[in-house]
Write a structure and sequence with these properties.
CATH architecture of the largest domain: 3-Layer(aba) Sandwich
Helix content: 25-40%
Strand order of the largest sheet: 1-6-5-4-3-2
CATH class of the largest domain: Alpha Beta
Shape: globular
Structural class: alpha/beta
CATH superfamily of the largest domain: Response regulator
Low-confidence stretches: 477-488
Strand content: 25-35%
C-alpha cells in the first residue's frame, strides 16, 4: 500500500530540507531524531497515528538515499517494514512543495488492528509447529525489535531447511509487548490461543514477569534471552542471557585500570534489572577498590536527562555505569556528549549494543564501553556465515545483529534441538531436554545446565566510529558464576 501527502512551505527548498532533524517544531516529519543527515544514519520519527491524542508510534529506520536540498529517502523496519520518500520541489510562485510518499508493508495492518484492540491472531498452516516471538516493536525498547524478528525468521528458515521440527515446518508468530507489561500479558494470551506451546522473548524484565506468569498458568514454555538479573527458576521458564555480575567482573577492573578513575555514578531506568545490576555493581566496584558517589533512576520513556547529568557532573564521578535501555540510553548518551560530561567521565553501559550505538551516533558514542556475549564483528566462521546470510536476506539497511537480538537466534536453535530430542510438542518434555543442551554458534559454545544457568563467553568492547573494537575476551568460570579474564 502506498500513501501520498503534500504541503506547501513558504521557504526555499534548501531551507526546508535543512529543517529535517533539527527539532525546530515544524511537525513530526521534520522533528525526526538522527545524529546526522547522511546516508546510513539511524532515524526515528514519532508519528501521530491516531487522532484525539492517541499514542504515537515510532518509525525507526535508516536514511537510504539523499540529494541535498531535494530528496530524503528513509528505509524503515519498525513498527513495520516500509519506505518514506520526501521530495522538496521549488514552486514557480515561490516556496517549496513538500511531497511525502509512504510505502507500507503487509505486516502493518495486523499491527494496527491489535493496537486498536481488534483481534488479529494470524494463521498457522495445518501441521506446522508454531513458536511465539515476543519483542518490543513499539515503546522505549523498540530499538531491538527489528533485528530480533529478522534473526528469528532467519533461524526458522535454517531449521526448516534442515527438516523442521520432527518433520513439521517451524512457523514464528510475532507479538509486540509495546514495552508494557499489561500489553505483554495480552500478547502472550494471543500467541497461546494461536497454538504456540513455546514463546521466545527478549523484552524488559517487567514484561518478562508478566509473560512468564501467563505462560506458566497455561503450561507453555518460555525462553528469555537478553541480559537480565536472574531470578527464581521454574521447569517451564528458562533465563539465558548475560548476568550483571559476570558483565561487571569482566569490565569494571579493566575500565578503572584504563582510565585511572575510581568514583562511580550509577544511573539507569527504574525497574528491576537496573536496580539489581547496581546491587552487584556496588559489590564489584568495592572489590576492585572503587567507590560509588551517586545512584539515580529515571522512568522508562524519559527523554530529558539534563538534571541527572548536572548531578553526575557535581558528584565528582569520573566513571558512569549506565543501565538505561533502548531509546532512553540513546537520549542519555547523546545529552551527556552535548553537555560535555564525556570530558569528565567515561561510561560503561550494560545494554549498549550495535543498534543503540548506531542510533547514538559516532561522535556521542565514541569511547563508551560495553560487555556482551556477542558483537557483530566477531571473527569466526559461524558468525561470518550468520552476518553474510543476514544482510543477504534483509538488505544492507537492516538493523545490525547484536547480543540482545542474536540471542533469540541461538535460543531458537537450542529449542529446536530439544524439541527434536523430545520427539513431541509437550512443553515439559522439551524443557527437560533443554537442560544440558549446548549449541556451537556465532558467539562460540553456549550451554544450558538449568532454567537459570547459562554459560557463554563474554567480550569487553569500546565503541568508536562505525562500531566496536574488542578490548578483552572473557570465559565464564567452571566453578562459579563469575569470570576469568583472558586478555586479547
Amino acid at each position: 500500500m502506498t500513501l501520498t501527502a503534500e504541503r506547501v512551505v513558504e521557504l526555499p527548498p534548501h531551507q526546508v530540507y535543512g529543517m529535517f532533524g533539527s527539532g525546530s517544531g515544524a511537525g513530526w516529519l521534520f522533528d525526526a531524531h538522527c545524529a546526522e543527515v547522511a546516508v546510513g544514519a539511524m532515524v526515528t520519527l514519532r508519528v501521530p497515528l491516531e487522532s484525539g491524542g492517541g499514542r504515537p508510534a515510532d518509525i525507526v529506520g535508516r536514511i537510504s538515499g539523499l540529494a541535498a536540498g531535494r530528496r530524503i529517502d528513509i528505509t524503515h523496519h519498525l513498527p513495520w517494514r516500509g519506505r518514506l520518500r520526501m521530495r522538496f520541489d521549488p514552486r514557480e510562485s515561490g516556496g517549496t512543495r513538500v511531497r511525502v510518499t509512504a510505502e507500507i508493508g503487509s505486516e502493518a495492518l495486523p499491527w494496527l488492528m491489535r493496537r486498536r484492540g481488534i483481534p488479529a491472531t494470524g494463521s498457522v498452516p495445518e501441521g506446522a509447529h508454531p513458536v511465539g516471538l515476543l519483542c518490543s516493536k513499539s515503546g522505549p525498547a523498540s530499538v531491538f525489535a527489528a533485528a530480533t524478528e529478522n534473526l528469528a525468521l532467519l533461524g526458522a528458515e535454517q531449521v526448516n531447511a534442515d527438516g523442521g521440527v520432527n518433520g513439521r515446518e517451524m512457523r514464528v508468530l510475532v507479538g509486540d509487548d509495546a514495552t508494557d507489561p499489561r500489553t505483554a500479558a495480552a500478547e502472550t494470551r494471543r500467541l497461546i490461543r494461536a497454538g504456540c506451546r513455546a514463546i521466545i522473548t527478549n523484552v524488559t524484565s517487567q514484561s518478562f514477569n508478566a509473560i512468564s506468569a501467563v505462560a506458566r498458568r497455561a503450561g507453555v514454555l518460555v525462553i528469555y534471552t537478553p541480559v537480565n538479573e536472574g531470578g527464581p527458576a521454574h521447569d517451564l521458564v528458562f533465563r539465558l542471557g548475560e548476568r550483571p555480575e559476570g558483565q561487571l567482573d569482566a569490565a569494571v577492573r579493566r575500565l578503572m585500570g584504563a582510565t585511572g578513575g575510581r568514583h562511580w555514578y550509577l544511573a539507569g531506568n527504574d525497574y528491576s534489572w537496573p536496580r539489581d545490576s547496581n546491587v552487584w555493581a556496588r559489590r564489584v566496584i568495592a572489590r576492585h577498590g572503587g567507590a560509588v558517589v551517586g545512584e539515580t533512576y529515571r522512568a522508562l520513556g524519559t527523554d530529558d536527562f539534563s538534571s541527572l547529568i548536572d548531578d553526575i557532573a557535581a558528584s565528582g564521578a569520573d566513571l558512569v555505569l549506565s543501565t538505561f535501555v533502548g531509546a532512553d540510553e540513546v537520549a542519555f548518551e547523546q545529552q551527556c556528549h552535548a553537555m560535555g560530561l564525556r570530558a569528565q567521565c567515561r561510561t560503561l553501559a550494560l545494554a549498549l549494543d550495535e543498534f543503540t550505538r548506531s542510533a547514538i551516533g559516532d561522535a556521542a558514542s565514541s569511547g563508551l564501553w560495553s560487555v556482551f556475549g556477542y558483537f557483530e564483528n566477531l571473527d569466526n566462521a559461524a558468525n561470518r556465515a550468520l552476518v553474510d546470510s543476514y544482510y543477504r536476506e534483509f538488505g544492507r539497511w537492516a538493523p545490525p545483529p547484536s547480543s540482545i537480538t542474536e540471542s533469540v537466534y541461538e535460543a531458537l536453535h537450542l529449542y529446536t534441538g530439544a524439541a527434536r530430542a523430545a520427539g513431541d510438542d509437550e512443553p515439559l518434555t522439551i524443557a527437560r531436554e533443554l537442560r544440558g543442551r549446548s549449541f556451537d554458534g556465532p558467539r562460540g559454545t553456549v550451554a544450558i545446565s538449568g532454567p537459570n544457568a547459562y554459560r557463554q563467553p563474554l567480550m569487553v568492547a569500546e565503541a568508536g566510529n562505525g562500531g566496536f573494537s574488542l578490548v578483552a575476551e572473557v570465559e565464564p568460570s567452571r566453578e562459579r558464576d563469575s569470570a576469568r579474564l583472558r586478555w586479547s
